[in-house]
Amino acid sequence: MNDPSAPATRRLFTPALVLILAVLAGYCLLALQPGWRRRLGLIDDGMWFLDSYAILASSDAVQAGLDPAQPNPLDVYHRPHSYSNWWFLLGKLGLSRQDNFLVGGSWVLAFVGLGLMALHPRTFREAGVGAMVLLAPPVLLAVNRANNDLVVFILLAAGLRCLLDSRPWRLAVFAVLLVLAAGLKFYPLVAGLALLLVRPPGLMLKAAAVTVLAGGVVLASVWTDFQRAVILAPTEVYTFGGPIIFRDLGWTGRAPLLAGATLLGLAAWACFRRGWLVRLDEAAGDFRERCAFAAGAALLVGCFLAGISYSYRLVFMVFLVPLLWRQIASPAAKWTGLLLLATLWLDGLYCLGANIFIGPMPLPELVHYQLVWRFVTQPIIWAAMVLLAGSLLGMLQAAMKDLRKRTAA
Question: With a threshold of 0.85, does the pTM exceed it?
Fold first, then answer.
């Protein structure tokens, strides 16, 4: 006789619940087992939320009459403030370093909640892929340090939640949150490329024009902060950017940026011409999933080309998963997904293997092995970015085609 409780049990363990439980278990392990954090290369010097602490320390420095652009004696690492002065609003709200666990913890909780909602898995396999993304070492690093890229993710994810369709008020909410994110950390404005998916073309032009204008005004208002914000990230594990390979080859100055943009552009064009790309047309998925993919791809490709940053940026891969899964039967989506998962996990697996099987080594030897590792892995990361850029080119071509039809009519 069949057990009448079996159907209820099957309904209980939905893909969404399995994903939630897997992520909670992973984050509990991260919190309770500092030894595994060290093996993964997630260095925190025994302190939670180091990056939100730096933001609050800069705000405290302003309240104390110090120059936040200088090395900050109130911060653990004496880091100067390298973001928009909008962050000083935290101090005006009465928040200080003593509130760091509250501030950093709220960022993490909001990120996890919106990340789970963005993934909304429909199958157990998709839940497994979602867990691999949310538990990837760069994402754990951002969570462990409560990096302010989580705040950018929160604002953009909230805006994308509104985009069930292209009604003007929904686009307006997305644009406001996008511009707010740009005012906090500059680079998020490139996510506005997702507005190229809006139809009809007339509405697309209006939405894009208003967003670009508002974003330009905001960036102009924080331009001095923007000029100060350029920080040279070290070339090591958990760094992300096209110029890495050129820096390792000894190139300096602006040449790596130009070479990277040229190389990626040509490769993306070749993929676009051959149709090796994730489709973003109206038949490819619902509007919100396509917008999320376009925004995530624009953020990743834009940051990859712009310079070298810490791999916190990879949190935006969450936006790519739903549409990739809808198209997983296509070779382009399958290869894009595999390359992106490799990008997320390669450095963490390197750190784990080195710490378990090799252990401490002299600094010159460590630098040498990391250099060899980057030469091996950079082509994989480049291939992932090329495929994302090809999809963005396809989206741009479709937008221009529809605009030409509108003009001809």
Answer: yes
